[in-house]
Amino acid sequence: MRIKIVLHYAAMVITIVGFFMLLPLICSLFYREPDLFAFIISTIVTSGFGILLWRLTPVGRELLTIRESLAIITISWVLVAAFGALPYVIAGTFSNYLDAYFEAMSGFTATGATVINAIESQPHGILLWRSLTQWLTGMGIITLFVALFPVMGVGAVNLVKSEMPTLISEKVTSRVRDIAKSVWMIYVGFSILEVISLYIAGLPIYDALTVTFATMATGGFTPTQQSIMTYHSWSVEIIIMLFMIIAAVNFRLFYSLFRKQKFRNFFVDPEFRLYLALLIGGSLLVTLDLITNSGLSLVDAIRYGSFNTVSIMTTTGFNNADFNVWPAFSRAALIVLMIIGGSTGSTAGGIKITRVILLFKNIYRQLLQTINPRAVITLRVGNSPVQEEVINEASSMSILYLTTLVMAFLALSAIGLDKITALSSVTACMGTVGPGLGLVGPMANYLWIPPLGKIILIMCMLLGRLELFTVLALFVPSFWKWR
Q1: Would the pLDDT of 409 be above 70?
Q2: CA–CA distance from 324 to each of 80, 100, 302, 367, 425 (Å)?
């Protein structure tokens, strides 16, 4: 393990984040608000530290190992959240650094769990920074780094695969930087399109921009206390719902569409078909439950049921109703969708739909082999055979995900949270959803949670966003052995 290389690349990532602080700085200057000085200081400290660390750790054109790539990813995410918390602390948004770090980690992991009580009372620059942190890391801050800067071929592959494991396939590793650029261009293109659409629908340009940042990152931060409910607009909700659905689709499909004109890939892709089926089926079931057990009209049930189901499954976390008071079935369905999440290679969190497909196909294969032990059955997804190591990864990841969820749930229960709040807060943070149920529902926040509980949830956010193995590998003793 070459610590110098790890710190060198982490320094470059920190510098990128420091320069992006100029955007909320300009916003604060435009609105003439006092958080201007917070962003001036934060920009200087963050970019200055990044440049200094980069200069102190010069490296040659050496290939990155897998271990070094994993270390760069985890250390970079921990550090960018640490520096990303500075504007909150300096501007006086929070009275303690832990709350600032919680908000920053929630932003950078696109979780959307907030510890701000009165959101509208915050300066425009601070609220823009909240949403910008989500957008920056929606497609991965390291993936952005690879797209912007030349990284050695194998090193680039390891970096992107460690942060976005399913974005790059084995067949295209030689073009990983080109793919990273293309994916980010598609991401930016969709973002511009949403901003224009929301502005035409009647949102002020500031709101359109901040909501878009959160939508495309499936993050959920808004500049308003009551999320999308504040706007009371069918057209705004439909536009946001459309882009939430887009953001949770595997971006490799968009890459094939825009670069190779392969539109049919959407219809033959098993993950995309199941994704749509779950969105439509979940929305219908929740809508029927709201009509039957909440007495909502058909129109209101469709409006609230579909929007919140899409928001939860795409792990965005927006809401246009208080789903915390919905019937038991609807709330249970939302919890299940939080765990499943969106597609692989998207900005969404959760276990991911491809892994769910592999798990159930493997279970069915085991049932067939129980009947006929001598049968050799190849597991296929679509028409493609799946390698055993991929099946093992999906099984291990799912088991580890659920095990971590249970352990964190028990830990929060041990410090005094009721079972609904404890379970939903862990599920929401692991799945990078944001709002949960109980005392962390869509009309509440995470401010009241004890410091130890916040630390546990911060770890859940990081583990959920980086899909566990990337982070937990650093705790294996042999990981730190030289070379």
Answers
A1: yes
A2: 33, 26, 17, 39, 13
**Angle, in degrees to the nearest 10, between helices 270-294 and 298-313:** 140
Which residue's entry shows tokens 């109703």?
321
pLDDT tens digits, 50-105:
999 999 988 776 677 788 888 888 999 999 999 999 999 999 999 999 999 999 99
Which tokens in the block code for residue 201? Answer: 């629908």
CB neighbours of 387 closer than 8 A, spacing ≥ 6? none
Structure tokens at 417: 């949270």
Per-residue pLDDT tens digits for 382-406 = 778 888 888 898 899 999 999 999 9
Residue type, 175: R
Q: Are 315 and 431 in contact (CB under 8 A)?
A: yes
Residue 383 identity (one-letter amino acid)? N
Torsion of Cα atoms, 45 then 84 then 239 then 304, to 10°: -160
The distance of Cα 437 from the centroid of its chain, to the nearest Å, equals 19
* Confidence category of residue 149, pLDDT binned at 50, 70, 90: low
Strand partners, 381: 384
Q: How far is 450 from 88, CA to CA, in rounded Å? A: 19
pLDDT in tens, 414-440: 999 999 999 999 999 999 999 999 999
99-128 residues labelled b (16+ CB within 10 A) or e (exposed): bbbbbbbbbbbbbbbbbbeebeebbbbbbb
Identify the residue whose tokens are 């340009």. 205
Q: What is the largest CA-CA distance in the chain?
A: 75
CB 421 within 8 A of CB 391: no
Instruction: For tokens 């953001």, name the residue.
Output: 247
